[in-house]
Write a structure and sequence with these properties.
86 residues; mainly alpha; 1 helix; 0% strand
């Protein structure tokens, strides 16, 4: 881990700190202008929007359910597996 790695870590930390400060200022100004209920409502809308965007990005992914406790043979699996008894 050379100096370049630590410079990237430092730049990332500074960028994250600036982003956090801007987010806190924005959220606090919404709470001041709209009150507690309006601020919570605006925060909920933003979080729902982030969740919706995340779900839309993952819509094309092939989802494989985790094995069920009662019958794991009914759960589809990815990849090639040897036939039973082999």
């Amino acid at each position: 881990m050379g100096i370049g790695f630590w410079v990237k870590v430092l730049v990332g930390a500074v960028a994250a700190a600036i982003g956090a400060i801007l987010a806190i200022l924005l959220i606090s100004s919404v709470f001041v202008k709209w009150g507690l209920f309006g601020g919570l409502l605006a925060l909920a809308v933003v979080l729902i929007l982030i969740g919706w965007i995340t779900d839309r990005r993952r819509a094309g992914d092939a989802y494989v359910a985790p094995p069920a406790d009662h019958d794991a043979s009914l759960t589809p699996r990815r990849g090639t597996f040897p036939p039973p008894g082999a």
